[in-house]
Amino acid sequence: MIKTEICKYCGEDYVPKRRGAQKFCSNSCRSLNWKKNQQFKELKVPAVNSIDEKSVLEQKPSLHEKMSFAGIGNAAAGAAVAEIAKNIITPNANKPATKKDIDDLKAFLKSRYFLVKNMRRDTQGRPAYYDMITGKVIHM
């Protein structure tokens, strides 16, 4: 004998696939029932005002009421202060490289001569350079 149940949304008979856990004949009935219950939860019951005995519907504050120019200004000022503090505290070695930094590095690496800082100048006072092509140190 096959036991049938009655759908709690549409009232049709169905054979449950899960014993005791299934209350609806299909997923569509289950989701439609959930939507119907959500609509009932959204309805507000009028509250009675004790001063003038008029019923007043409770309303959610709109987005316009939640935001103010003072709040926006405070948020902008806070973000600016945080950015300035971050720039002051972060050492230059840890800051990200910009496109200009990378272009300067490429130009530096493509150059032929590199200054040798730990060598003395020659008798004429010229600094020492390393020639990348010949591999020799020259004074210019």
Task: Provide a quick synopsis of the model.
By secondary structure, this protein is an alpha+beta fold. 38% of the residues lie in helices and 13% in strands. It contains four helices and seven strands; from the N terminus they run ββαββαααβββ.
Defining traits:
single chain, alpha+beta, three-stranded antiparallel sheet, two-stranded antiparallel sheet, 4 helices, 7 strands
Molecular structure report:
Helix content is 38%, strand content 13%. By secondary structure, the chain is of the alpha+beta class. The protein has four helices and seven strands, in the order ββαββαααβββ. The chain starts with a strand and ends with a strand. A three-stranded antiparallel β-sheet has the order 5-6-7, with no helix packed on it. A two-stranded antiparallel sheet has the order 1-2. The protein has helices spanning 27-42, 63-66, 69-89, 99-110, and strands spanning 5-6, 13-14, 47-48, 55-56, 113-115, 128-131, 137-139. Strand 6 and strand 7 (137-139) form a beta hairpin.
